[in-house]
Specification:
With 110 residues, the protein is mostly helical. Helices cover 85% and strands 0% of the residues. The radius of gyration is 18 Å and the shape is elongated.
Length: 110
């Protein structure tokens, strides 16, 4: 039946995955803002240059999460392979950039 198809475990898993990616993007966005606030006191230009890509990638990650969810729903309906790896790549890049900015701050004696 139609209601049974909507409540399938696969659809619930896709929705939970979408929400997890949204939370990850939001957490990275928040962590980037906190790092920017801390770094702006000592190195305003360097902080903006180092953290702007991470901030942008976290926003892209939240957008890709929605697209990935829609693609996953379509793939489930059509019984084909799910979405690719752009979202995990954006997450890895954002975390890497944020970590490098933090490492640079520690090494510079912040």
């Amino acid at each position: 039946s139609r209601n049974a198809r909507r409540a399938s475990p696969e659809r619930g898993a896709a929705e939970r995955t979408d929400l997890a990616w949204q939370r990850t993007g939001l957490a990275l966005f928040g962590a980037t803002l906190v790092a920017a606030r801390l770094g702006m006191r000592h190195w305003p230009v360097a902080t903006v240059l180092a953290l702007a890509p991470s901030l942008l990638l976290s926003v892209v990650m939240m957008r890709l999460a929605s697209l990935r969810y829609r693609r996953a729903q379509t793939a489930l309906h059509d019984r084909r392979a799910g979405p690719g790896g752009r979202l995990p790549f954006a997450a890895a890049m954002s975390v890497t950039l944020l970590g490098l900015a933090g490492l640079a701050a520690v090494l510079a004696g912040m």
